[in-house]
Write a structure and sequence with these properties.
Function: Catalyzes the condensation of (S)-aspartate-beta-semialdehyde [(S)-ASA] and pyruvate to 4-hydroxy-tetrahydrodipicolinate (HTPA).
Number of strands: 10
CATH architecture: Alpha-Beta Barrel
Helix content: 40-55%
Strand content: 5-15%
Number of helices: 12
EC number: 4.3.3.7
Order of helices and strands: EEEHEHEHEHEHHEHEHEHHHH
Pathway: Amino-acid biosynthesis; L-lysine biosynthesis via DAP pathway; (S)-tetrahydrodipicolinate from L-aspartate: step 3/4
CATH superfamily: Aldolase class I
Family: Belongs to the DapA family.
CATH topology: TIM Barrel
Radius of gyration: 18 Å
Distance between the termini: 30 Å
Number of domains: 1
Enzyme class: lyase
Largest sheet: 8 strands, parallel
Length: 293
Amino acid sequence: MERFHGALTALVTPFIDGKLDEQGLVDLIEYQIAGGIHGIVPCGTTGESATLDFDEHKRVIDITVKTVAGRVPVIAGTGANSTSEAIELTESAKKSGADAVLSVVPYYNKPNQEGIYRHFKAIAEAVDIPMFLYNVPGRTVIHVLPETVARLAQIPTIIGIKEACGDLGQISDVIRLCPAEFIVVSGDDFSAMPTIFIGGKGVISVVSNVDPGGMARVMEAALAGDSVGARDGHYRLFPLMRLMFKTPSPGPAKKALQLIGRMKDSEPRLPMTGPDEATTELLRLELQRLGMI
């Protein structure tokens, strides 16, 4: 498996009574690696980065890097809608020893394409570390357009993009316009398999929190050109993928981890809440079907 390819987990952040559960984080990382995951992505949206303060954010990345200890790549979430804050978090991730960073398109303030370009260019010029862009218009409102991605791909340290637009046409344009070595990974589980078959290299996954081995096998099959194996693995996990977003993420992922005995306290931080009783029961039934409980 090449570096930064395959199934990379958008890792949830464990809390106990609202406070960072450091041992729980270590245990969760070990579960991921034992399951055969290809990389770890702490402090993304699924890691509740929006409600981590700066010290907690830096601590989660530091613990992740130390626990992983080089066994798989660590791509640290360091994005912000303030360029100076994104630079500060990126500098901290580099000090911690992260292999790369993931930087989201600025949210809420709605910059134009030139503003997006200058934002990422400023981060890349300030900190010498491999960077993945992160396009998730469902959360940020705006897209980074394929033409802007192609401009940014000319910057040597901007090596790829997590593309969560849900549009295979747009993903195709990114792949078509960018250099061959530019790494495009899916930003959601549903489009992961087809993204590989149009030239992508993997996924930053939510469902792999719960079943790292299952998602890793889907990506390995797809990257090997085994369309039947990839399709079978995709449909095996598809109902669980759906449930990961039945109520706001990461609530269902954390509840599923609690149900399989991998997390003590599944409550996310407000304003996020855990899944309702009906969703919890659906999760329980699906995990039983998969043989995980």
